[in-house]
Design brief:
The protein has 317 residues and is α+β, with helices and mostly antiparallel strands. The protein is 14% helix and 30% strand. The strands form 2 sheets. Strands 7, 8, 9, 10, 11, 12, 13, 14, 15, 16 and 17 form an 11-stranded antiparallel β-sheet that branches. Strands 1-4-3-2-5-6 form a 6-stranded mixed β-sheet, covered by helices on one side. β5 and β6 form a beta hairpin. The chain is globular. It starts with 16 loop residues before the first strand and ends with a strand. The mean pLDDT is 96. This is Thioredoxin domain-containing protein. It holds the Pfam family Redoxin. One of its GO terms (molecular function) is oxidoreductase activity. InterPro entries: Redoxin, Thioredoxin-like_sf, Thioredoxin_10, Thioredoxin_domain, Thioredoxin_ResA/DsbE_sf.
Length: 317
């Protein structure tokens, strides 16, 4: 049953760990308006909500609002506590966060989305919700109603990977690479699952399609580079392009990004330089491109110097 069909806030029991707080329980939160926010660390949609969550935490903490983040992992590697801890530090998150590795809180809320926001009044009743990005003024006004105050809305502006998407020019959807959810994979000569195979890049990539070059293994959640100097490419139209990466190798892996066969120059993302050089040193989302100038269809290619790179999903903004 979805939480919106319930009278009161479900239990927060079942978290495997808490950050920034001792374990919190629903019954102890009575008397305080509560915002519960589900997230997972590689989700670009969640990253773009963070300026608002941080602003609300600072602006309304002294008024009695309690914000609780619930990290429920999407990919297997996101179960790692060290990855969550680094994400909290990188995003400046100081409000309480429950690590929901067993999906107990997710299931208690009947949740299905990253990100998802639930607003709960002082009596413990769920009063509003928001799935995905957007509707920030509406959510903040509900916060003020629950607190019994009325004031100007808090300014919030995302920078870098947290910047709002260029929705007017975004034409390419999120693209998963593991075989359980992938689409639009171009592989001349065919492909195999769970077995290393040499792939060749097609002469031309169709819009919103992706391809591999070099020896890769296509696994359930990701593709794994088995030999050095392998690449992955996609044809996209968006201001920003990101890639969720992890590594099987013990050492960081250097990579190079090209746009239409050339270094990105001023269109480089926050995780590469103008020459397209980057370093895979953490398991997270990497911003590879922020287009400088007119947004149009482009071909992005990432080449890794060493084996062991794991690529999970392209996302765009």
């Amino acid at each position: 049953m979805n939480v919106l069909e319930r009278a009161h806030m479900p239990s927060l029991d079942g978290a495997t760990q808490w950050f920034n707080s001792e374990p919190l329980h629903s019954r102890e939160l009575r008397g305080h308006p509560v915002l519960v926010h589900f997230w997972t660390l590689t989700c670009i949609n969640w990253l773009r909500t963070q300026p608002y969550l941080r602003a609300w935490s600072q602006a309304y903490r002294d008024d009695g609002l309690i914000i609780i983040g619930v990290h429920t992992p999407e990919f297997s590697f996101e179960h790692g506590i060290d990855h969550v801890e680094r994400a909290l530090a990188a995003r400046g998150i100081t409000y309480p966060v429950a690590v929901d590795n067993d999906y107990k809180i997710w299931q208690a809320f009947g949740n299905q989305y990253w990100p998802a926001l639930y607003l709960i009044d002082a009596d413990g009743k769920v009063r509003d919700h928001q799935f995905g990005e957007g509707h920030y003024p509406e959510s903040e006004r509900v916060i003020q109603q629950l607190l019994g105050i009325e004031r100007r809305l808090v300014p919030a502006e995302g920078r870098g990977v947290e910047a709002e998407a260029d929705w007017a020019h975004l034409r390419t959807p999120e693209t998963y690479l593991g075989f359980i959810r992938t689409e639009n994979f171009e592989a001349p000569g065919g492909f195999v699952l769970n077995t290393p195979r040499a792939y060749e890049m097609p002469e031309h990539l169709n819009p919103n399609h992706w391809a591999l070059a070099g020896t890769w293994t296509i696994r359930r959640e990701h593709v794994l580079l088995d030999q050095a100097d392998g690449g992955i490419a996609c044809r996209f139209q968006a201001r920003d392009a990101h890639l969720v990466l992890a590594r099987e190798a013990s050492e960081p892996i250097k990579f190079r990004v090209t746009l239409n066969g050339k270094a990105p120059g001023r269109s480089h993302g926050t995780d590469v330089d103008a020459d397209g050089e980057g370093l895979l040193d953490e398991s997270r989302l990497y911003q590879l491109v922020r287009t400088h100038g007119r947004v149009q269809a482009q071909t992005l290619q990432v080449t890794f110097d060493e084996p062991g790179a794991q690529a999970y999903a392209f996302t765009f903004g």
